[in-house]
């Protein structure tokens, strides 16, 4: 989901190294909001799966299709059943990503969407970023080692050819469940050395 | 996980109404930290399941056993594989709860553990609370309707007989991923009318 900031960015995170030495064929794209999902759905002519592999009762939506020799599934957590807004945030994102891994065994997961960016770190409106590292800025646990757990720093899948081919910017991302940014969030985002800020990575 | 506060409390949240008109027989207890889990494991003489119903590679632990005519599974997210600390916080809690629902089809889920409490709201050290309502204090999304989604208010399962029988206190709980409490968190906790604060509800 787009986060507040003086710049708007797009980020794509590839989180899963392929398990064997074979071409990537099964791709899952996780997207938080329908307005972020639909341009991808339309570009790849994906169709909504009427019989998703997810449990009955969850609002999670799968769009699927093929592109060249790739099977593509775009997973969107759907609308909150009570409130009707997109199920944004890290919990929904983690749940659908887990369920998609279990059901679809992807070779590659791409977490894509709009994000906030920091001009002082070199981001501009319309930039497309590929994320090199991902960390939390709103899980403050000031106990040794738990503090590192809270930050949860992860390296994303390295994709140098993609970066070169598409001339993408590369930057670190900081994630959290709030759209605004408190002083404590800002300190953590600076500590995370983040160029990009989102709510679902 | 225990949260900071001038009082320490225990809370138990029963989140799942029984689906049919039959006695509750299958109970899942979700606990964030091993030190919180072991007294329950010992009390009910639960044993660690060497062959959990969870995917290979996850650190999630299931202790199981029976008490009278009840099947009890205690699920603990386990230790972070890299850092070795308990996998506290809302994301781990949501993932193991989801996976436990899928694998074990419980009639009742109890989210139990230590928590912070607010003296001004009537909490004292050693109190045992049953939670009536649960909401987030660290998902600030200041857009109409999304703001309500972020707060995510949920009613817990009502258990008046349990409250009466065990003479429990009843209160509202506010949850979030940080152990400390910023000014913004405090405002949200007050808005949530919370007596109890934890990190995994």
Automatic annotation (TrEMBL), chains A, B:
<dbReference type="GO" id="GO:0019509">
    <property type="term" value="P:L-methionine salvage from methylthioadenosine"/>
</dbReference>
<dbReference type="GO" id="GO:0009116">
    <property type="term" value="P:nucleoside metabolic process"/>
</dbReference>
<dbReference type="InterPro" id="IPR044580">
    <property type="entry name" value="MTAN"/>
</dbReference>
<feature type="domain" description="Nucleoside phosphorylase">
    <location>
        <begin position="27"/>
        <end position="201"/>
    </location>
</feature>
<dbReference type="InterPro" id="IPR000845">
    <property type="entry name" value="Nucleoside_phosphorylase_d"/>
</dbReference>
<protein>
    <recommendedName>
        <fullName>Nucleoside phosphorylase domain-containing protein</fullName>
    </recommendedName>
</protein>
<dbReference type="InterPro" id="IPR035994">
    <property type="entry name" value="Nucleoside_phosphorylase_sf"/>
</dbReference>
<dbReference type="Pfam" id="PF01048">
    <property type="entry name" value="PNP_UDP_1"/>
</dbReference>
<dbReference type="GO" id="GO:0008930">
    <property type="term" value="F:methylthioadenosine nucleosidase activity"/>
</dbReference>
